[in-house]
User: Which sequence fits this backbone?
């Protein structure tokens, strides 16, 4: 019985690996097939690697599938904005005709929505590609955990089955290896947040690896928001000992306390700043490296270069699957560490002689 189960698992792993390779190759061909489009008569086009990379890692007002220019195929997304002169405006991004035309006084300039009237001030609340991807990730997480919760209720006292058996080790890992060791006895209070941030980052990172997926974690606004939430958890959880260490560090000579005060205050904000930059930089760097490697094919226009670039890009993409989980782990671990520092109890023994 165990042998049959092992054989089935090996077959499943082999199938998943082959499927992943097929998806990656399909992704590369889909993304780059239109980048080296045939030039029109009397006109010679030159491949611009920088523009291509910037286009694929930046946010957008539509969900681009394939093609370029007027031949591109995209899913339009809702544009929602509030104007100081026209009030609330809601319309489809398809009205911009791939960003080449203005609509009711608004246009896209370098993928940013602006008003043609310079005196008009607008507040943009649009559902962009990154926002849509976050909604999809949230829906996936909700469905997964509702399913797991239902399984726990049905299989009380039984071994986990199906999706429950897949995610229970991850949930236990976050609880036993991240939350409890770093926060201490009060970890249960913060476990829901840590589980949420771990799976939210992980799922968004994985969605970014799917062909035409959004580079959500590579958006500085996304990582900044998560870092600010961790900062708020830390500040509002801080006990007397935490604030005493910041404003009047015990066990330190009086002259040094004056010097340490601004250093400790700056440290409050450098910690979430490091969280923000680490996640943003690592995810963005991975995408840029893969796209840069594939760009060599169209820069040198050589099959020999393609024979090296594509396998190397596939290996990097497989590494990105690991990095997607690693970055979620690191962000969650550091968040737990910062919260743990805020709630920790200390015994102070002042040296008075």
Assistant:
């Amino acid at each position: 019985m165990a042998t049959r189960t092992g054989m089935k698992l090996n077959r499943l792993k082999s199938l998943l690996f082959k499927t992943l390779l097929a998806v990656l190759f399909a992704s590369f061909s889909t993304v780059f097939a239109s980048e080296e489009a045939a030039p029109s008569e009397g006109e010679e086009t030159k491949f611009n690697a920088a523009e291509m990379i910037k286009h694929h890692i930046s946010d957008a007002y539509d969900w681009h599938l394939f093609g370029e220019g007027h031949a591109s195929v995209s899913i339009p997304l809702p544009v929602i904005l509030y104007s100081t002169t026209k009030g609330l405006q809601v319309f489809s991004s398809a009205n911009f005709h791939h960003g080449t035309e203005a609509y009711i006084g608004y246009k896209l300039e370098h993928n940013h929505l602006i008003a043609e009237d310079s005196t008009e001030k607008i507040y943009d609340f649009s559902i962009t590609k990154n926002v849509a991807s976050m909604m999809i990730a949230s829906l996936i997480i909700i469905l997964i955990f509702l399913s797991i919760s239902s399984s726990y209720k049905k299989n009380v006292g039984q071994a986990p089955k199906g999706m429950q058996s897949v995610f229970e080790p991850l949930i236990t890992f976050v609880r036993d290896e991240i939350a409890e060791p770093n926060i201490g006895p009060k970890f249960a209070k913060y476990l829901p947040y840590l589980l949420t941030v771990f799976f939210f980052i992980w799922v968004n990172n994985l969605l970014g690896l799917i062909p035409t997926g959004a580079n959500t974690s590579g958006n500085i606004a996304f990582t900044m928001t998560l870092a600010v939430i961790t900062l708020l958890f830390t500040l509002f959880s801080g006990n007397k000992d935490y604030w005493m260490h910041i404003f009047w560090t015990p066990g330190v000579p009086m002259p040094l306390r004056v010097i340490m005060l601004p250093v400790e205050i700056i440290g409050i904000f450098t910690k979430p700043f490091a969280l923000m930059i680490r996640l943003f930089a690592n995810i963005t760097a991975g995408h840029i490296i893969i796209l840069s490697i594939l760009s060599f094919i169209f820069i040198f226009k050589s099959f020999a270069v393609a024979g090296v670039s594509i396998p190397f890009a596939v290996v990097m993409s497989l590494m990105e699957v690991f990095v997607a989980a690693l970055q979620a782990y690191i962000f969650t671990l550091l968040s737990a560490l910062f919260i743990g520092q805020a709630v920790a109890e200390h015994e102070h023994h002042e040296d008075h002689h």
